Amino acid sequence: MTSSPAPIPGLTARDYKSEVKPVWCPGCGDFSVLSAITKALAELKLPPEKVSVISGIGCSSRMPAYMNSYGFHGVHGRAVALATGLKLSRPDLTVLVTGGDGDGFSIGGNHFLHACRRNVDMTYIVMDNQVYGMTKGQPSPTTEPDWDSALSPGGTGLRPFHPLVIALASGANFIARGFSGDPNGTARLIVDAIRTPGFSFVEVLSPCVTFREDQRGWKKIVRPAPVDPTEDIGRAARRLMTDDGFNLGILYTGKRKPYQLRLDAVEEEPAALETQFVV
User: Fold this and answer.
1) What is the longest distance spanned by two Cα atoms in the chain?
2) Residue 231 domain-assigned?
3) Residue at 113 is within a domain
4) Which of 16, 212, 224, 253 has the fewest CB atoms lying closer than 10 Å?
5) Rounded Cα gap, residues 252 and 223, in angstroms
6) 73 has which bridge partners?
Protein backbone atom coordinates (compact mmCIF):
# COMPACT_ATOMS: atom_id res chain seq x y z
CA MET A 1 0.00 0.00 0.00
CA THR A 2 1.22 3.49 -0.81
CA SER A 3 1.57 5.73 2.21
CA SER A 4 -0.76 8.72 2.43
CA PRO A 5 0.69 12.19 1.85
CA ALA A 6 1.68 14.08 4.98
CA PRO A 7 -1.11 16.41 6.14
CA ILE A 8 -0.51 20.15 5.89
CA PRO A 9 -1.59 22.04 9.02
CA GLY A 10 -3.46 25.31 8.69
CA LEU A 11 -5.39 24.52 5.52
CA THR A 12 -9.00 25.68 5.36
CA ALA A 13 -11.89 24.90 3.03
CA ARG A 14 -11.09 28.06 1.08
CA ASP A 15 -7.69 26.65 0.12
CA TYR A 16 -9.43 23.95 -1.92
CA LYS A 17 -11.68 26.32 -3.90
CA SER A 18 -10.60 27.81 -7.22
CA GLU A 19 -11.25 31.37 -8.36
CA VAL A 20 -13.89 30.15 -10.83
CA LYS A 21 -17.38 31.07 -9.66
CA PRO A 22 -20.05 28.34 -9.91
CA VAL A 23 -22.78 28.91 -12.50
CA TRP A 24 -25.39 26.66 -10.92
CA CYS A 25 -28.93 27.95 -10.56
CA PRO A 26 -29.58 29.95 -7.36
CA GLY A 27 -30.63 27.50 -4.66
CA CYS A 28 -29.06 24.45 -6.30
CA GLY A 29 -27.96 21.87 -3.76
CA ASP A 30 -24.62 21.43 -5.53
CA PHE A 31 -23.31 24.65 -3.93
CA SER A 32 -23.52 22.92 -0.56
CA VAL A 33 -21.91 19.75 -1.88
CA LEU A 34 -18.96 21.82 -3.10
CA SER A 35 -18.76 23.27 0.41
CA ALA A 36 -18.92 19.80 1.96
CA ILE A 37 -16.12 18.47 -0.25
CA THR A 38 -13.80 21.37 0.55
CA LYS A 39 -14.58 21.10 4.26
CA ALA A 40 -13.76 17.39 4.16
CA LEU A 41 -10.43 17.99 2.43
CA ALA A 42 -9.60 20.71 4.94
CA GLU A 43 -10.26 18.34 7.82
CA LEU A 44 -7.99 15.74 6.24
CA LYS A 45 -5.36 18.45 5.57
CA LEU A 46 -4.50 16.88 2.22
CA PRO A 47 -2.07 18.80 -0.03
CA PRO A 48 -4.22 20.19 -2.88
CA GLU A 49 -1.70 18.92 -5.44
CA LYS A 50 -2.27 15.39 -4.11
CA VAL A 51 -6.02 15.55 -4.76
CA SER A 52 -7.64 14.90 -8.13
CA VAL A 53 -11.34 15.41 -8.90
CA ILE A 54 -12.72 13.61 -11.96
CA SER A 55 -16.16 14.20 -13.46
CA GLY A 56 -18.32 13.42 -16.46
CA ILE A 57 -21.10 15.57 -17.93
CA GLY A 58 -23.92 17.42 -16.17
CA CYS A 59 -24.54 20.26 -13.76
CA SER A 60 -22.76 18.56 -10.86
CA SER A 61 -19.90 17.46 -13.12
CA ARG A 62 -18.69 21.05 -13.27
CA MET A 63 -17.09 20.40 -9.88
CA PRO A 64 -13.41 20.11 -10.99
CA ALA A 65 -13.45 23.69 -12.29
CA TYR A 66 -14.44 24.98 -8.87
CA MET A 67 -11.71 23.06 -7.02
CA ASN A 68 -8.13 24.11 -6.34
CA SER A 69 -6.73 20.68 -7.14
CA TYR A 70 -5.93 18.60 -10.15
CA GLY A 71 -8.99 17.53 -12.08
CA PHE A 72 -10.41 16.24 -15.31
CA HIS A 73 -13.78 16.97 -16.92
CA GLY A 74 -14.40 13.83 -18.95
CA VAL A 75 -17.09 12.66 -21.34
CA HIS A 76 -20.57 11.54 -20.40
CA GLY A 77 -20.67 8.49 -18.12
CA ARG A 78 -16.94 7.76 -18.19
CA ALA A 79 -15.77 9.55 -15.04
CA VAL A 80 -15.40 6.42 -12.90
CA ALA A 81 -13.43 4.66 -15.64
CA LEU A 82 -11.09 7.63 -15.97
CA ALA A 83 -10.64 7.84 -12.21
CA THR A 84 -9.89 4.11 -12.00
CA GLY A 85 -7.05 4.46 -14.49
CA LEU A 86 -5.68 7.47 -12.66
CA LYS A 87 -5.73 5.85 -9.23
CA LEU A 88 -4.09 2.66 -10.45
CA SER A 89 -1.32 4.58 -12.18
CA ARG A 90 -0.93 7.15 -9.39
CA PRO A 91 -1.82 5.39 -6.12
CA ASP A 92 -0.29 8.30 -4.18
CA LEU A 93 -3.21 10.57 -5.16
CA THR A 94 -6.53 10.97 -3.36
CA VAL A 95 -9.02 10.49 -6.17
CA LEU A 96 -12.57 11.81 -5.97
CA VAL A 97 -15.24 11.31 -8.62
CA THR A 98 -18.17 13.71 -8.77
CA GLY A 99 -21.29 13.58 -10.90
CA GLY A 100 -25.02 13.25 -11.07
CA ASP A 101 -27.63 10.51 -11.25
CA GLY A 102 -27.93 10.72 -15.03
CA ASP A 103 -24.20 10.63 -15.73
CA GLY A 104 -23.55 7.95 -13.13
CA PHE A 105 -26.46 5.57 -13.42
CA SER A 106 -27.61 5.83 -17.04
CA ILE A 107 -24.83 5.98 -19.62
CA GLY A 108 -22.31 5.43 -16.81
CA GLY A 109 -24.21 2.61 -15.13
CA ASN A 110 -22.00 -0.21 -16.34
CA HIS A 111 -18.86 1.61 -15.23
CA PHE A 112 -20.48 2.15 -11.83
CA LEU A 113 -21.14 -1.59 -11.40
CA HIS A 114 -17.61 -2.60 -12.24
CA ALA A 115 -16.01 0.17 -10.18
CA CYS A 116 -17.82 -1.26 -7.15
CA ARG A 117 -16.66 -4.75 -8.14
CA ARG A 118 -13.02 -3.77 -8.65
CA ASN A 119 -12.91 -1.93 -5.31
CA VAL A 120 -10.17 0.50 -6.29
CA ASP A 121 -9.39 2.95 -3.50
CA MET A 122 -11.34 6.08 -4.50
CA THR A 123 -14.49 7.96 -3.52
CA TYR A 124 -17.52 8.49 -5.78
CA ILE A 125 -19.83 11.36 -4.79
CA VAL A 126 -23.11 11.41 -6.72
CA MET A 127 -25.40 14.43 -6.44
CA ASP A 128 -28.80 12.83 -6.97
CA ASN A 129 -31.66 15.17 -7.88
CA GLN A 130 -33.74 12.59 -9.77
CA VAL A 131 -33.74 14.68 -12.96
CA TYR A 132 -31.52 15.79 -15.84
CA GLY A 133 -31.29 19.51 -15.07
CA MET A 134 -28.96 20.24 -17.99
CA THR A 135 -31.49 18.85 -20.48
CA LYS A 136 -34.31 20.90 -18.99
CA GLY A 137 -36.16 18.42 -16.83
CA GLN A 138 -35.73 15.04 -18.50
CA PRO A 139 -36.45 12.08 -16.15
CA SER A 140 -33.32 10.30 -14.92
CA PRO A 141 -32.79 6.69 -13.80
CA THR A 142 -33.73 7.62 -10.21
CA THR A 143 -36.89 9.59 -11.09
CA GLU A 144 -40.09 8.20 -9.58
CA PRO A 145 -42.31 6.48 -12.18
CA ASP A 146 -45.31 8.80 -11.79
CA TRP A 147 -43.47 12.15 -11.91
CA ASP A 148 -45.42 14.20 -14.42
CA SER A 149 -43.50 16.69 -16.56
CA ALA A 150 -43.57 18.30 -19.99
CA LEU A 151 -40.99 15.79 -21.23
CA SER A 152 -42.75 12.76 -19.70
CA PRO A 153 -46.48 13.43 -19.41
CA GLY A 154 -47.96 11.09 -16.81
CA GLY A 155 -44.51 9.82 -15.83
CA THR A 156 -42.24 7.18 -17.29
CA GLY A 157 -43.85 4.23 -15.54
CA LEU A 158 -40.36 2.81 -15.00
CA ARG A 159 -39.04 1.45 -11.73
CA PRO A 160 -36.34 3.78 -10.34
CA PHE A 161 -32.72 2.67 -10.20
CA HIS A 162 -31.66 2.07 -6.57
CA PRO A 163 -27.97 3.04 -6.51
CA LEU A 164 -27.22 2.04 -2.91
CA VAL A 165 -28.61 -1.46 -3.42
CA ILE A 166 -26.66 -1.81 -6.67
CA ALA A 167 -23.48 -0.58 -4.98
CA LEU A 168 -23.85 -3.13 -2.19
CA ALA A 169 -24.58 -6.02 -4.55
CA SER A 170 -21.66 -5.06 -6.78
CA GLY A 171 -19.08 -4.87 -3.99
CA ALA A 172 -18.62 -1.26 -2.86
CA ASN A 173 -16.68 -1.12 0.41
CA PHE A 174 -18.40 1.96 1.88
CA ILE A 175 -21.96 3.15 1.24
CA ALA A 176 -23.51 6.31 2.64
CA ARG A 177 -26.18 8.91 1.95
CA GLY A 178 -26.00 12.62 2.71
CA PHE A 179 -28.14 15.69 2.10
CA SER A 180 -26.95 18.95 0.58
CA GLY A 181 -28.97 20.85 3.18
CA ASP A 182 -26.55 19.48 5.79
CA PRO A 183 -23.09 20.31 4.39
CA ASN A 184 -21.33 19.63 7.69
CA GLY A 185 -22.88 16.18 8.00
CA THR A 186 -22.09 15.46 4.35
CA ALA A 187 -18.50 16.60 4.90
CA ARG A 188 -18.13 14.07 7.73
CA LEU A 189 -19.43 11.32 5.45
CA ILE A 190 -16.90 12.28 2.77
CA VAL A 191 -14.08 12.25 5.33
CA ASP A 192 -15.05 8.72 6.39
CA ALA A 193 -15.40 7.67 2.76
CA ILE A 194 -11.90 8.88 1.86
CA ARG A 195 -10.40 7.25 4.94
CA THR A 196 -12.04 3.90 4.16
CA PRO A 197 -9.85 1.74 1.88
CA GLY A 198 -11.50 0.59 -1.33
CA PHE A 199 -14.35 1.98 -3.41
CA SER A 200 -16.51 4.36 -1.39
CA PHE A 201 -19.89 5.53 -2.65
CA VAL A 202 -21.66 8.57 -1.23
CA GLU A 203 -25.09 9.48 -2.59
CA VAL A 204 -25.97 13.09 -1.79
CA LEU A 205 -29.59 14.18 -2.15
CA SER A 206 -29.13 17.52 -3.91
CA PRO A 207 -32.39 19.26 -4.89
CA CYS A 208 -32.86 20.76 -8.35
CA VAL A 209 -35.00 23.75 -7.42
CA THR A 210 -35.40 24.79 -11.07
CA PHE A 211 -37.01 21.65 -12.51
CA ARG A 212 -37.99 19.82 -9.29
CA GLU A 213 -39.34 22.54 -7.03
CA ASP A 214 -41.10 19.85 -5.01
CA GLN A 215 -37.68 18.78 -3.76
CA ARG A 216 -37.54 21.85 -1.52
CA GLY A 217 -39.57 19.68 0.85
CA TRP A 218 -36.74 17.17 1.25
CA LYS A 219 -35.36 19.12 4.19
CA LYS A 220 -38.48 18.14 6.16
CA ILE A 221 -38.26 14.48 5.17
CA VAL A 222 -34.60 13.52 5.56
CA ARG A 223 -33.51 12.13 8.94
CA PRO A 224 -30.58 10.22 10.44
CA ALA A 225 -30.73 6.51 9.73
CA PRO A 226 -32.36 4.77 12.71
CA VAL A 227 -29.66 2.08 12.80
CA ASP A 228 -25.89 2.09 13.19
CA PRO A 229 -23.55 1.31 10.27
CA THR A 230 -23.13 -2.40 9.68
CA GLU A 231 -20.41 -4.65 8.29
CA ASP A 232 -22.93 -7.45 7.73
CA ILE A 233 -23.78 -7.47 4.04
CA GLY A 234 -27.01 -9.40 4.61
CA ARG A 235 -28.24 -6.94 7.23
CA ALA A 236 -27.22 -4.03 5.01
CA ALA A 237 -29.17 -5.53 2.10
CA ARG A 238 -32.33 -5.83 4.19
CA ARG A 239 -31.95 -2.24 5.34
CA LEU A 240 -31.41 -0.85 1.87
CA MET A 241 -34.15 -2.87 0.20
CA THR A 242 -36.68 -1.41 2.65
CA ASP A 243 -35.18 2.08 2.69
CA ASP A 244 -37.38 4.95 1.48
CA GLY A 245 -34.44 6.96 0.20
CA PHE A 246 -34.32 9.57 2.97
CA ASN A 247 -32.26 7.89 5.71
CA LEU A 248 -28.92 9.67 6.08
CA GLY A 249 -25.59 8.41 7.31
CA ILE A 250 -23.18 5.53 6.79
CA LEU A 251 -25.24 2.51 5.81
CA TYR A 252 -22.52 -0.08 5.13
CA THR A 253 -18.78 -0.47 5.72
CA GLY A 254 -16.98 -3.51 4.37
CA LYS A 255 -13.52 -4.97 4.82
CA ARG A 256 -12.63 -6.01 1.30
CA LYS A 257 -9.01 -5.46 0.35
CA PRO A 258 -8.67 -2.72 -2.29
CA TYR A 259 -7.55 -3.73 -5.75
CA GLN A 260 -4.05 -2.60 -6.70
CA LEU A 261 -1.88 -3.11 -9.75
CA ARG A 262 1.55 -4.54 -9.32
CA LEU A 263 3.90 -1.71 -10.21
CA ASP A 264 7.12 -3.69 -9.90
CA ALA A 265 7.03 -5.26 -13.37
CA VAL A 266 10.35 -5.50 -15.21
CA GLU A 267 10.70 -2.88 -17.94
CA GLU A 268 11.71 -4.07 -21.40
CA GLU A 269 12.84 -2.26 -24.48
CA PRO A 270 10.34 -2.22 -27.40
CA ALA A 271 12.71 -4.29 -29.54
CA ALA A 272 12.74 -7.05 -26.91
CA LEU A 273 8.95 -7.03 -26.72
CA GLU A 274 8.66 -7.32 -30.49
CA THR A 275 10.53 -10.61 -30.49
CA GLN A 276 7.64 -12.20 -28.54
CA PHE A 277 5.31 -11.62 -31.48
CA VAL A 278 7.48 -12.92 -34.27
CA VAL A 279 5.60 -15.58 -36.28
Assistant:
1) 70
2) yes
3) yes
4) 224
5) 17
6) 55
* Residue 20 to residues 17, 23, 187, 240, Cα–Cα distance (Å): 8, 9, 21, 38
Spatial neighbors of 97 by CB under 8 A, at least 6 apart, are 53, 54, 55, 79, 80, 83, 122, 123, 124, 125
Q: What is the CATH number of the domain that holds 84?
A: 3.40.50.970
| Contacts by residues 149-156 (CB-CB < 8 Å, ≥ 24 positions apart) | 149/211
Query: pTM score > 0.85 for this model?
Result: yes
Q: What is the pLDDT along the chain (279 residues), one digit of tens a residue?
A: 445 666 777 889 999 999 999 999 999 999 999 999 999 999 999 999 999 999 999 999 999 999 999 999 999 889 999 999 999 999 999 999 999 999 999 999 899 999 999 999 999 999 999 999 888 889 999 999 999 988 899 999 999 999 999 999 999 999 999 999 999 999 999 999 999 999 999 999 999 999 999 999 999 999 999 989 999 999 999 999 999 999 999 999 999 999 987 766 667 788 887 888 887
Domain annotation covers residue 217: yes
**Domain membership flag for residue 17:** no
How far apart CA 30 and CA 205 sit, in angstroms, is 9
Euclidean distance between CA atoms 198 and 161, whole angstroms: 23
* CB-based contact 248:170 (threshold 8 Å): no
Query: Which range marks the domain in which residue 49 is found?
Result: 24-277
What region does 206 belong to: left with phi over 0, alpha with psi -120 to 50, or beta? Answer: beta
How many independent structural domains does the chain possess? 1
What one-letter code names the amino acid at 111? H
- Per DSSP, the three-state class of 252 is strand
